[in-house]
From TrEMBL:
GO terms for cellular component: plasma membrane. It comes from the Bacteria. InterPro entries: AAA+_ATPase, ABC_AA/LPS_Transport, ABC_transporter-like_ATP-bd, ABC_transporter-like_CS, BCA_ABC_TP_C, P-loop_NTPase. Keywords: ATP-binding, Nucleotide-binding, Transport. This is ABC transporter ATP-binding protein. Transmembrane segments: none annotated. Pfam families: ABC_tran, BCA_ABC_TP_C. GO terms for molecular function: ATP binding; ATP hydrolysis activity. The keyword Nucleotide-binding applies. Gene3D superfamilies: P-loop containing nucleotide triphosphate hydrolases. Residues 2-250 form the ABC transporter domain.
Length: 263
């Protein structure tokens, strides 16, 4: 699905991504972990077209997508969420979902004058799809709630729901668990697994909660200092000396190993 080759993104003399190469397989839920400042979010931003690379290439389904802007990648089925949810706070949850599909007929002035019936039918279909998403995510009770009033976890569910309003192929989730209580995090995790198994979504997930990563993700990719440090099944990754050292430093490595290898 996604292939990254020798990707670099520099900010002056700082190498946020420093020669990263990795593959995200179609149909996988791939975890991306690493200490703060490892370059994970910058890597997401380059893949998703938010930032141009300094050098290197990104491929999707064998096609070079390096440097394409986010709106073009959106239409190819590549979507990215952010650590802080980007909802339309004054609009309802349903309205936030209905905003997602592009090229709606009602966005063209002359069609609002001469094709009212077509616009009404299209809007009814989009509303129906939004309600299906609300049911899937078990948040139908929030249909008419202003998005700005949602909790952090509910906003993350809404962001996930927005990816369901289009034909997504791969979704990059950036710290989906940040600021989310354990119950809602479990709901989010269940939704990700269902979307993967039932609808064929491919996911790449940045997350610091290793229990969440271990439950959902295979394989797991580890970044440190802008480079890919390791890749493999979650249980193997958590026993990797280089990974433990990257997270905790040499001084604590032996203590962690003695405690069973949990990060």
């Amino acid at each position: 699905m996604i292939r990254v080759e020798d990707l670099h993104r520099h900010f002056g003399g700082f190498r946020a991504v420093d020669g990263a190469s990795l593959t995200i397989e179609t149909g996988s839920i791939t975890g991306l972990i690493g200490p703060n400042g490892a370059g994970k979010s910058t890597l997401f931003n380059v893949i998703a077209g938010v930032l141009p690379p300094t050098s290197g290439r990104v491929f999707m389904d064998g096609q070079d997508i390096t440097g394409l802007p986010p709106h073009e990648l959106f239409h190819k089925g590549l979507l990215r969420t952010f650590q802080l949810a980007h909802e339309f706070s004054s609009m309802t949850v349903r309205e936030n979902l209905m905003m997602v599909p592009g090229t709606q007929s009602g966005e063209t002035i002359w069609k609002t004058w001469f094709q009212r019936g077509r616009i009404d039918r299209e809007e009814a279909e989009i509303r129906r799809r939004a309600d299906e998403v609300l049911d899937f995510l078990t948040i139908r009770h929030l249909t008419h709630e202003k998005a700005g009033n949602l909790s952090g976890g509910q906003k993350k569910l809404l962001e996930l729901g927005r990816t369901m309003m289009v034909d997504a192929k791969i979704v990059f989730l950036d710290e989906v668990g940040a600021g989310v209580n354990r119950t809602l995090l479990g709901t989010i995790g269940d939704a990700i697994v269902r979307l993967n198994r039932e609808r064929g979504y491919t996911f790449c997930v940045i997350e610091h909660d290793m229990d969440f990563i271990g439950r959902l993700c295979d394989p797991v990719i580890v970044m440190a200092a802008g480079k890919v440090l390791a890749q493999g099944p979650a249980d193997h990754i958590m026993q990797n000396d280089d990974v433990i050292e990257a997270y905790l430093g040499t001084g604590l490595k032996n203590k962690v190993k003695a405690a069973g290898g949990a990060l």
